[in-house]
Amino acid sequence: MTPAASPAALPRSDRPVLVTGAAGFVGSHLCERLIERGHTVIALDDFSTGHADHLKALRRHTRLQFVRHDIAQPLPEGLPACGAIFNLACPASPAHYQRHPVATMLTSTVGTWRLLELARGSGAVFLQASTSEVYGDPQVHPQHESYWGHANPIGPRSCYDEGKRAAEALCYAYQREHGLSVRVARLFNCYGPRLRPGDGRVVSNFIVQALAGRPLTVYGDGRQTRSFCYVSDTVRALLALMDSDWSQPVNIGNPAEHTVLELADRVRALTGSDSPLVFRPLPADDPVRRRPDIGTARSVLHWRPEVALDEGLALTIEYLRERAEPTLAVLHADWHAAPELVRGRTLQAVNRQD
Ligand code: UDP
């Protein structure tokens, strides 16, 4: 562990840093990097999709204080004045957020509002983890930050897409009305260790299925594309953005674009699996193409992704090999096609088991 000497360049770095979604997939990696850099971290999570194990390495660290909390509820009394807030709280897997659309929307709207108020009160710099989903099913390719997007405001993804769009709008409302210093990071398909076996997103589904020798569930014809960014690259960009004085949205992603079929092939090759593919209906509003234009991140943050897909997948496979519980991934994978399979199972019930 690095000494507490140099809390680097984060704004007001002598004050604690608040991270919400801290026990989540990206949030827990971010907390580790912040602690390494010497910061004191107040970590909030309600464990709706995160897991205490993700913060295991920091459990006894004196500079990490964990508070179990849902940010849509009034914030706990007595939080110290923070210098920076990273708002990463929100389920990000379509399978999870579509099962809890109201909570998802409230997390991004009411929750973000509460944190913006906290930031205003303490003069903290506020970073919102936004998403490529703000572009909806984009009609412009690749997606530059100046593109306003093509999102369905009432479809099954809208709780997430419109929630995140509202969160961005709230950030800029606070900037305009209160002079708050904001950062908005639009994350594109982050993956890596700590994706949970039952997460339901394509990378973890394919890996868990391949490791179990079960068919890989391809939605639609598999020719839709995504651009997958390894989690260490994502976290490096979040820190660089908070360190910077750039207040406009920034795309954070890996511009290498792959079809879902290509991903399935890579996963089968890297796991040595001969699992067949099984085709399932394409979920409603599933974006057809997605690739970030990262010109802003390159020029403003001097950031570019460094971990190639095969390398990142190998590390993720290694992680999931020890944790994969095939049945749950199949439940999530089949969910779009056969929701009755999971009817009656709450998210918490699922999470307790994966
Ligand atoms: N997908 C798939 N099989 C799965 C899970 C997802 O073919 O088991 C597809 C999904 O339809 C989408 C892409 O993979 O086109 C990425 O889905 P994911 O849920 O990872 O994230 P999204 O980018 O859609 O939010």
CATH class annotation of the largest domain: Alpha Beta
The total of beta strands comes to 13
Compute the number of helices: 11
Rg, rounded, reads: 19 Å
Structure explained in plain terms:
This protein is α/β, with parallel strands linked by helices and 354 residues long. It has 2 domains: 17-191 and 228-252, Rossmann fold, CATH 3.40.50.720; 202-226 and 255-289 and 308-353, UDP-galactose 4-epimerase, domain 1 (Alpha-Beta Complex). It has 11 helices and 13 strands. The strands form 4 sheets. A 7-stranded parallel β-sheet has the order 3-2-1-4-5-6-11, sandwiched between helices. A two-stranded parallel sheet has the order 7-10. The two termini are 29 Å apart. Residues 1-8 and 334-354 have low confidence and may be disordered. Bound molecules: uridine-5'-diphosphate. Residues 94, 189, 201-202, 205, 217-219, 224, 226, 260, 283, 286, 333 line the site of uridine-5'-diphosphate. Uridine-5'-diphosphate binds at residues 94, 189, 201-202, 205, 217-219, 224, 226, 260, 283, 286, 333.
Key descriptive features of the protein:
alpha/beta, Rossmann fold, 2 domains, binds uridine-5'-diphosphate, UDP-galactose 4-epimerase, domain 1, seven-stranded parallel beta sheet, 13 strands, disordered C terminus, 354 residues
Furnish the topology, listing elements before pairings:
Blueprint: E1 17-20, H1 25-36, E2 41-45, E3 64-68, E4 84-87, H2 94-97, H3 101-122, E5 125-131, H4 158-178, E6 182-187, E7 190-191, H5 202-211, E8 216-219, E9 225-227, E10 229-230, H6 231-243, E11 249-252, E12 257-259, H7 260-271, E13 277-280, H8 295-301, H9 309-321, H10 326-333, H11 347-353
Parallel strand pairs: 1-2, 1-4, 2-3, 4-5, 5-6, 6-11, 7-10, 8-13
Antiparallel strand pairs: 9-12
The structure holds uridine-5'-diphosphate.
